[in-house]
Amino acid sequence: MSADGFTRMSIYGINLDLFSSSPIVILKVEGENRYLPIWIGQAEARSILMKLQNQEFSRPLTHDLAASLVSELGGSMERITVTELKDSTFFATIHLQIDGRAVEVDSRPSDAIAIAVRTGAAIFAADDVIEEAAVEFQDQEALEEAPEDEVVDKFKDWMNRVSPEDFK
Fold first, then answer.
1. What residue range is the signal peptide (predicted)?
2. How many Å apart are CA 12 and CA 35, to the nearest integer?
3. How does DSSP classify residue 134?
4. 48 with 114: CB under 8 angstroms?
5. How many angstroms separate the CA atoms of 12 and 10, rounded?
6. DSSP one-letter string for 9-26
7. Could you write out the three-class secondary structure of 30-71?
8. Which of 29, 23, 12 is nearest to 117 (CA)?
9. Half-sphere exposure of 40 (CA within 13 A, CB side)
């Protein structure tokens, strides 16, 4: 656990839940083998993936527009936090600096992550959310020594067995 109640995360990837055909963004606890799967919408998954793969549309997407608005108004996006898990729904907050003052904006995690990848903002999750919903692979040593494609295959196998109800 961290001192301030939040742990830094990184985007591990986006996968598809075969049962519901819903995309899942997978956040990884930095320096650990714990992963936080968050079911998201198709549009948000596409937006995150496009930016991660350095693809651009000829016109800005909604998340591009939000990042541009903050920047043009003299603000900066400091970080996003996945703050809560309630009734199988994740909640997030976008932390901005505008004219020297801290501003917090309620958000869906998928939108916050999509904007964070555009602005380079750090991603954090509340320690209690990680404790409640993160998945840990038991054989971390074997996982670290395995080729990357085997790690992805193991994670996909797990993803094929898990459902949103497993996180209630």
1. none
2. 8
3. -
4. yes
5. 6
6. EEEEEEEEETTTTEEEEE
7. CCCCEEEEEECCHHHHHHHHHHHCCCCCCCCCHHHHHHHHHH
8. 12
9. 29
- What are the Cα distances from residue 150, in Å, to 27, 35, 102, 153? 19, 17, 43, 5
For residues 64 and 43, give the distance between their C-alpha atoms in angstroms, rounded to a whole number.
Answer: 13
Side chain identity, residue 43? A
Is the domain 6-143 a CATH 2.30.30.30 member? Answer: no
Mutual orientation of helices 109-119 and 42-52 as an angle, nearest 10°?
20
- pLDDT tens sequence for the chain (168 residues): 566 899 999 999 998 887 888 899 999 999 999 999 999 999 999 999 999 998 888 888 899 999 999 999 999 999 999 999 999 899 999 999 999 999 999 999 999 999 999 999 999 999 999 999 999 876 555 555 555 556 556 666 666 666 655 554
What residues have CB less than 8 Å from 2, skipping those under 6 apart? 8, 127
Residue ranges per structural domain of the chain: 6-143
Give the residue from 58, 60, 67 showing the smallest Cα distance to 115: 67
Report the amino acid identity of residue 7: T
